[in-house]
Amino acid sequence: MWLIALLVPLLPTIFMVSSLYCGKVSILCHQALAWALRLVGGGACVKSTHVFVFSNCTHGKGDSVLETFDLYAETHQSLCIGPQIGEILDDVVKSVKSVRPLWVLELRMHCGYSSGRLLRLLPHGGGLITVVLDPVTADLGEEIILVTSFKQSQVQFLHSSAEAIPTLNSFLESEGTSDGINLVLMDHDSQQYLLDLLALEREELLCPSGCTVALLVPKDPKALYISSHPPIHTHIHTLVMASYIVATATLGRTDRGEAAGHWRHRAL
């Protein structure tokens, strides 16, 4: 805890230095800022976000709820909520929106922000599966989702991703779908990204006609170790260096039956 207390007063300085200088100094500052923000985030951040949004949004108006999240992000630095990440999530959903029904898997929850943005654009008959380990985050996020009044189906699994993934087939079957998942948002433990992608493939949960996988990853392209997965061919495009990037890939079956991926990066 003493380390957190030491870092918090330094966050403005870290942010200022990172915005003034380029190269390695900027990279180190951005990484330190990102690490510190995640370190101090925890339950308190989730609770304060919930209180602000719940108290200031118009209940029953989904757009008002999301706008209130963005307003909160203007005064509370966050890598998980705000207009930038919201715009990217919107683009990702719109890119696969033509698929019906559309099932989305969200690994990790941020007080319902990403959940709300995903639900807002899902077509009729679509649904969102959220895997979240912390019960407090799950409860507060669910309350925010209820306030949005979005009609699409949303279900939570209070497990780790490793525990939840093997159970998803039976859930999808109970919902009357055999097409699998059309979109996966990974924003949990980056060390689990490749393991979870392999588990999703092993359980045959990815839609055979194509599944988009969106990752929130550290800015260093070397951290995109999912790209080393042999069946996935990664094409890295222009990157604007920032603390984190969102990388998306559409995985589908080629004529040889292999998965083919095309990654698209957006700065965050």
UniProtKB/TrEMBL annotation:
The keyword Ligase does not apply. Gene3D superfamilies: Vaccinia Virus protein VP39 (3.40.50.150). The keyword Transcription regulation does not apply. Residues 1-19 form the signal peptide. InterPro entries: SAM-dependent_MTases_sf. It comes from the Eukaryota. One of its GO terms (biological process) is developmental process. Keywords: Signal. GO terms for molecular function: catechol O-methyltransferase activity. This is Uncharacterized protein. It comes from Haplochromis burtoni (Burton's mouthbrooder).
